[in-house]
Design a protein that fits this description.
The chain is mainly beta. It has no helices and 14 strands. The radius of gyration is 20 Å and the shape is globular.
């Protein structure tokens, strides 16, 4: 259980997760039963729009099967090989939860060892969520005509950030009016996530001296309100570069990215991230 007191609201979170795992060679199978409860006590005069999306109240019961096939030469400092991830989540209406949806995520990574020049790394992710019933109160920040309104906002897909699309700030990759919403009277679009995700990443990681190296990358993708609306012409692409330190416990990377496909009035400022671990 986790409690966060505040002058304006209080959040209580608790839950339980039971997971069975089996390893067969390079394949890892797992089946998890997950239950979560978030309760929110808002003081009078405080609008929900002022509270982070993670604090919106909900209850969720899910079955989560996962398959990971890993043929990389190293799970942290991979230089060759590939890995495939298939993860689904079925949320069912039980134990006080009204949610009923199926979520599927497919992820593929490929690594090519170029010898002294470095490593070429490619990643692809595609995901979809299908809701089978309407949520009761829903999310007050999400228009009810969007398919994503029937999925708790914490369970939707988001893009933008050090591990998804490095040319966009955290969670701010999306389609205006669908996964990015302009609040009434607001001047900046806010991320609400979506039920469809498509991402492609390309890294060229090269050595500089000792444990220090660099990276040049291209990221492309988007987030849609409905997985049926995924369209390649709507992908947003960015590029950038960075510096890497292969520390004893994993890579530490600083990147700077620029948007190549900007919406009208979208900021052209570069985006900087400091990240521990690999983006994919």
């Amino acid at each position: 259980q986790d409690t966060e007191p505040s002058n304006s609201f209080e959040v209580r979170r608790w839950g339980a997760r039971e997971e069975a795992v089996r390893q067969l060679g390079r394949s890892r199978f797992s089946l998890a039963l997950d239950y979560r409860v978030v309760k929110l006590n808002v003081k009078q005069g405080v609008a929900l729009n002022d509270i982070e999306r993670k604090d919106l109240p909900y209850q969720l019961a899910s079955v989560v099967p996962t398959l990971l096939v890993d043929h990389r030469d190293d799970p942290v400092f991979a230089t060759r090989g590939w890995s495939s991830l298939v993860q689904s989540q079925y949320s069912f209406p039980a134990f006080g939860s009204d949610a009923n949806f199926l979520k599927l995520l497919l992820q593929q990574s490929q690594y090519f060892n170029l010898g002294k020049p470095g490593v070429l790394a490619l990643g692809a992710r595609i995901g979809g969520i299908e809701a089978f019933r309407r949520l009761g109160a829903g999310d007050p920040n999400t228009p009810q005509n969007l398919p994503s309104s029937n999925v708790f906002i914490d369970e939707r897909f988001f893009g933008g950030g050090a591990t998804t699309h490095r040319a966009y700030p955290l969670d701010l990759l999306g389609i205006r009016g669908e996964s990015l919403i302009l609040p009434p009277g607001g001047s900046h679009y806010q991320p609400i996530g979506g039920n469809g995700l498509l991402l492609f990443n390309l890294d060229y990681r090269f050595p500089i001296a000792g444990a220090f190296g660099g990276v040049v990358f291209v990221d492309s993708g988007n987030v849609w309100a409905d997985w049926r609306d995924i369209r390649l012409p709507q992908l947003k692409t960015g590029t950038g570069l960075g510096a890497r330190w292969n520390s004893p416990i994993g890579p530490l990377t600083v990147t700077i990215g620029w948007k190549l496909d900007r919406d009208k009035n979208e900021s052209a400022s570069p985006v900087v991230f400091l990240n521990f671990g690999n983006p994919f």
